[in-house]
Amino acid sequence: MNRKGIILLIECKRTNQKDIQEGERPGGIVSIMSQSQWSRNFGHGEAKIAEATENYYVLTWDLCRLGYFNRNIINKDNVKSSFAFQSKGHSVTLYIIELAFDGVYVMAELNSIQIPKSVNTLKTLITRHSLMCLMQAAHAFDKIKKEKNTSQEFSSMKRIEPSLKQLEVLVSEKKYRRRNSSI
């Protein structure tokens, strides 16, 4: 909860929000709740359980989906940037997606945070490094909450393509799950 009484909630379950064109939906939505009202979406996230072996194909495809869903937030809400997270097991990676130039959407990794596995290891979250990571993420999130940009120049910078189906071409069809990069 911040000083204005607004609570940031990250809902990480199958959402009811569907993308009209693709019939796909994100794994989670980053939104703010003020009293009992939801405000606009600030980003999306994907979550996977920890596995014994790494499945880079699934993680890469989730990253492509994050870029797609967050690009749509930028386009539909007329905001310059959006917030994304990718969770795998006890590790959460935070991203910011920004419309930087004419048709160029940039996804940058902010931080990667290790979530404690039990109450006994909760003190590992309160280290100087972990708190700095959380502060950087909070600062980036504050920048995202800025007002909408409705200028003609900003509108001309946005791009609609590619769709999720077209993005599937980027991810290798050969699903060798232990290869470091599937792109």
Automatic annotation (TrEMBL):
Domain of life the protein comes from: Eukaryota
Source organism of this protein record: Rhizopus microsporus ATCC 52813
The name this protein goes by in its record: Uncharacterized protein
